[in-house]
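SAMPLE LOG
Freezer: B-3
Tube label: C17
Construct: single chain, 463 aa
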Amino acid sequence: MAKKNVPYDEKYYDDVETWPREKLEELQLERLRDELVWSYENSPYYKRAWDEAGVDPHITSLKDLEKFPFIDKQTERDCQGIGSFFGELCCVPEDDVVYMATSSGSTGVPTMSPFSQHDFDEFMRAEARLFWQTGMRPNDRYLHGMNFALYVGGPCVIGAQELGALGIWVGAVPSDRLLWAMKHYQPTHFWSSPSYAWLLGQKALEKGYGPKVDFANLRTIIISGEPGGSIETTRKAIEDIWDASVYDFFGLSDIYGACAGMCEHKDGLHIIEDQILVEIIDPVTGEVLPDGEKGEIVYTTLTKRSRPMIRFRSGDIGWVNRNKCECGRTMTRIYISGRKDEMFIVSAVNVFPSDIEYIVRQDKGLSGEYRIRAYDENHTTKYEVSVERVFDSDEPFDQIASRVENALKTHTGVRPARVLVYDTDKLGASGEHKVKRFIDERTSTAEAKEVMHEAEEHAAHKK
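STRUCTURE (predicted):
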């Protein structure tokens, strides 16, 4: 894989980032045609499913994609290991696969994600472009703080090397070791989860470091894996600790480690739209919604050959903006509110964990850690929020609880059943990397089905 030589002062890594919409859609249609025919001819699943649906892979417009059936995580599980190691969705023999990742299995059996050499090269080009978008250049040092163990975000460090930066392969190590590496190697860029980026800052302070001085070279922190990166208060909390600019990235094991990322204007995440098509659908009817309307996000790969993902229902709720960004890029921006299997309805109001995080992370009297519990009581859904007060605070617990309750009522429209307040580090919600903050204890599935519209996914989530 050869490095792409781009002048340091060039704003865009690839010209396609600024193509007019009409030109971009011509490229998308050309690639989609190839992807559909390839999938039909090489995947037993797609051939069977599309024949049953009566759809022809030889399309004439992008809109024709709406005729094709959806796939989801359950499709992957059902196909995995059938007929071959990678299963009926795979379009190449195992000999052609050079890398595989797996999902976390948080919503069921982990699913394998195979990459041919062609796929892996496209993956790295996508990462390089997103890194360049954050300001990374060949003279930068990039410290990769993400898990390497079967996690699709692990190889993203190679994307930094693709553009010429120095890759420092640290990975998911204990905080003491990571802080030592950051102090001695002085990276300019660092990638972690929102939770861990914030926690690491707290650990640095506890160890006597002054993050703004001892890690003075650090100017960019990339965060992903949790919704916090697109929540302004969370980004600001991390930026205040490190005196570095925070950029949110989004990816999923089914496609790439990162498929979309923020530019300097931080208004949504630019998706690699020459490689991935995005649709927003009604979670109930599957109808494609107009741009700007909120619904479930659906992805279709355009260049992936080992396991194409055609109309993959991601389970994420959000919306898109296809207007040209202030940065000059014409690539569609996605905005993710949260997971549909973590949304709950209280008094006819839709609530996402990200709504609660917004409030918790802006309260200067709180540590920033939190946990949400949703449960049923008297045939209705209720929720409670647990938080921590800042270190050495003597503010009364009931005073903090009242303030947070009122703020949540104002922001979400519904008051929590209660707010529980702990001292710093007593909640037990922090972790070295990705943290589970939403506890779903609802026993009535009637409302859950209405909210999620996929009972099997809900049941898998609760196991």
